[in-house]
Design goal:
This protein is mainly alpha-helical. It contains twelve helices and six strands.
Length: 382
């Protein structure tokens, strides 16, 4: 009986440990996942009743072509900034927009949002979209793509690939990431939730690295469907996502002149021999000056003789007659036996006689004289 009780006690202890482990695992998974419909509470005046100690300001320049649009929508910008107790000013002479805090400003992050607003307005983002940055759950990202590709033509092609035919690729990216994306010049402006901005940046950077955006859009579509299933939230999604391989279609061209590397040696190359060293090796160093001069003169004469012979050969080339072509064509060789086929020759001659060579003979018409005509007339009268 004692053994059974001890066994039951051990089993109860093990089950207790297991249940504690499972509870901890459940708690961790609950902590990691954000509940559906949860929102962070907004920042109110009660959170910072005394306001800010010092004034902060940001300014940005805008291009000349944006001046007309900014003048038109500026009252709306001032109204939106006024709700967050931010003062905005437009300077058309300098071509700049400035935002600064006031004494009534209580939210310290409002000035950062206002800075992002004027940046987006300067980057050709319409006011209706740019004003969303003042919301708490919105953020923006300005991706610089101008320096990612060296060749200008290649850069324009890849930027157009990001937009797609009639903007279809950009629209698909906006729907999947819940972000507004604006491609303008050398930058891409994105506005939306943080998770969406992360995906937009990845797609844009990959497109500039010559990876087509359709691959990333396909993975985003799969991820969107997988996120709907609550059981797959904790699991890894790698098995569901497609894996695209890089295809190197064009092989690298090999250079015409291949430089063969010499074997590495720690010792430096031998010093080149000087003129004195060469004379010592041949024994010329010990000769007299008169003998040296004579030897030099002989060498010069030999070189001059070679040059003269070469020149003479070149001159004589003009007097060499060219090879003439034979006038008569080579006739076919007679048969080796020397026998002629007489019957065959007779047949050929007979056939040639029967054939009428040349054009048919023209029969001349009889001459009609004036006397004949008169005779005919007299006959008719009689």
């Amino acid at each position: 009986m004692a053994s059974s009780t001890t066994g039951d006690g051990v089993s109860e202890a093990q089950t207790g440990k297991k249940s504690k482990k499972t509870k901890n695992q459940v708690d961790e998974s609950d902590l990691l996942t954000v509940p559906d419909g949860w929102k962070e509470p907004g920042f109110t005046r009660d959170d910072n009743p005394r306001g800010l100690l010092e004034e902060s300001s940001f300014a940005t320049l805008f291009p000349k072509y944006r001046e007309a649009y900014l003048k038109e929508c500026w009252p709306l910008v001032e109204k939106a900034c006024g709700e967050a107790n931010i003062k905005a000013s437009l300077d058309l002479i300098e071509g700049s927009i400035t935002v600064c805090t006031t004494k009534k400003t209580f939210d310290p992050y409002a000035i950062v949002r206002a800075r992002d607003l004027i940046k987006l307005l300067a980057r050709s983002v319409p006011f209706e979209q740019a004003v969303r940055i003042l919301q708490d759950d919105m953020a923006c990202d300005i991706i610089k793509i101008g320096t990612l590709v060296r060749n200008r033509e290649r850069f324009v092609k890849r930027r157009q690939r990001l937009i797609g035919p009639k903007g279809s690729t950009l629209k698909a990216l906006e729907l999947l990431t819940n972000c507004y994306v604006m491609v303008q010049g050398n930058t891409v402006s994105a506005l939306g939730p943080y998770n969406g901005l992360k995906e937009v940046r990845k797609v844009v950077m990959d497109t500039m690295k010559n990876i087509h955006p359709i691959y990333n859009i396909k993975t985003l579509m799969i991820k969107r469907e997988l996120s709907k299933d609550p059981d797959l939230r904790v699991q890894s999604w790698e098995r569901f996502l497609p894996k695209f391989r890089h295809k190197n279609l064009a092989k690298r061209k090999e250079p015409k002149k291949k430089s063969v590397k010499k074997e590495y040696t720690p010792f430096p190359p031998a010093q080149p021999e000087s003129k004195v060293d060469k004379e010592l090796a041949t024994g010329e160093f010990f000769l007299r000056e008169s003998v040296k001069k004579r030897k030099k003169m002989e060498e010069i004469k030999v070189k001059q003789g070679e040059a003269l012979t070469k020149k003479q050969e070149e001159r004589n080339k003009a007097f060499i007659p060219p090879k003439e072509k034979p006038l008569m064509k080579k006739t076919a060789k007679a048969p080796a036996d020397g026998k002629l086929d007489i019957d065959a020759i007779k047949d050929k001659v007979r056939k040639a006689k029967t054939k009428k060579l040349g054009a048919p003979p023209v029969i001349p018409a009889p001459p009609t004289s004036t006397t004949d005509k008169k005779k005919k007339k007299n006959k008719t009268k009689g």
